[in-house]
Every structure is written in C-alpha cells, then in structure tokens.
Amino acid sequence: MELRKTTLHKKYKLKDQGDMPKYTVLEFRPKKTPYCLCIPVINEGQRIKRQLEKLRKYTNVVDVLLLDGGSIDGSTTPEFLKKNKVRALLVKKSKGWQATQLRMGFGYAIKQGYSGIIQIDGNNKDSVSSIPLFIKALEQGFDYVQGSRFINGGRGINTPLSRELGIRLLMSPLLSLAAGHRYTDVTNGFRAYSARYLAHPKVRPFRKIFQKYSLNFYLCVRANQIGLSTKEVPVGRRYPAGKVPTKITGIRKNFDIFLEALKAALGIYNPEHESF
Question: Which one, 44, 60, 148, 151, has least CB within 10 Å?
C-alpha cells in the first residue's frame, strides 16, 4: 500500500487512557518541532552526557525530552541539559521502571501536541544519525517504525552472541507471529510512534499494567493488529568492547523479560482482554 506523505499535524487528545504516572517537569526550551525524542534514563552517567552532546546537531528537527527514573549520579543537572539544548526534563514520582518512564513521556508529548514520538535508549549505544529516517517514515504516514540493526543498511557492532541469537531466533519470531508482520530486531529500543497510534482507543498504552519492559513489546505487536501502517528502518547499535554494561542481568531478569514478551504475543495486554 502506498502511503501519502503528509505535513498536517493533528493534535490528538487522551481520553480514558488509564492511570498516568506522577512526575515533575522542568522545561528549558519552547516546543519547536512536530517531533520529540524521548530518552528514558536512570544513572547513565557519562553515557547519556556523550549522547546528548551528539544530539545537539539534531535539535533543529526534534525536541529532546529526558525521562528520568530518579538519577542520583549528577548526569541530569539542569545546567548541562540546557547547554545541550534539551527541551524538558521529566522526573518520575510514581512507582515503576522503564515502561512507567515511557508512559509519562508519551503522555506529556501528546498533550504538548507532538505528531510523532521517537524513542531511544540513553546508554549511547544507538546511531543518533538515524533520527532523520524515523522522521521521514512518520512524515510518510507510518504509525510504528522499528529500528533494526539486522536489515540492509543496519549495523550491529560487538553485539553479544547470546543476545543476538535470542533476538533472531526467539524474540523477533515470537512477536512477528503475534503482529502478523515480520520484524527482525524487536528488542531494539530505537523506534518511533505516531501520536495517532499512542492515542488510539484500541491501544491505551497509559495503563498502569505497563511497569517494566512490557510496553515495548506490546507496542511492537499492537499496531499491525489494529490495521495501522508499520515499517523497519536501518540503525546502528554499538556495544563497547569487553564486558557489556547492562541493567538486564541474571537468569531471573531475562526470564521475566521473556514472560512479558510472551504475554504481549498472547494478547494479554490488549485492552479488550484486560481484567485489571
């Protein structure tokens, strides 16, 4: 299906979307673009500082929103954020993990009138130079855009073998089957959403059932299930040589993440099936 390119930016409203997290906001700059970049962080130290420095050259096409889960390492000081053209710092006050940070960021973004929301991790692993590809896809009318290091033009550097095998042989086939659309890199946090998708009454991503990583998996499969347009774009993801810094360690945590992906694949998070 050929999608018509559009520059019309409709403001979507959130109705009956569930429990929004509590948070504080420090705004450093006015809204300047139709798109925002949401970065969930907690104690990322020099990694997020280096990433924000790289992002400065893209702040003319995307507003940067930092979604802080409660950092205490000094990496999110207002002075540094203003210097690097961050538009706003949101600090989570409700309980929860990454999904709660994303819920507060997405809710803020829609209320601010952004037409599209790009999401990226705050650990300086991703190719920020790919941001224009996400904006182009959103302008073309796609509602969910997944970044992939495994398609033509993508790059995966120093990816741990166990992680690559898990993505290629388990997670991507599982969620692709549920979506009815082939994805190659479903755990990649570099992706984008239209405001229409996030505000859709059949999606309702702001429910408090989404606490840890489940929101990423759910949003990966839900767009295709309700007939919205999706695609993958090539991105780069570089792991540092040697020991890989990650917040996802241990058999129990990896099993919990797989369980959340399985629930998303089985439709347990779909609004029509909710009993919570």
Answer: 60
Integer Cα distance of 108 and 210 in angstroms: 17
Domain assignment of residue 263, yes or no: yes
Q: Are 108 and 87 in contact (CB under 8 A)?
A: no
Nearest to 190 by CA among 242, 232, 228: 232
What residues contact 196, with CB distance under 8 A and at least 6 apart?
10, 12, 143, 228
Whether the CB-CB separation of 99 and 257 falls below 8 Å is answered with no
Range(s) of the domain holding residue 177: 23-270
pLDDT in tens, 151-199: 999 999 999 999 999 999 999 999 999 999 999 999 999 999 999 999 9
pTM of the model: 0.90
Residue 9 lies in a domain: no
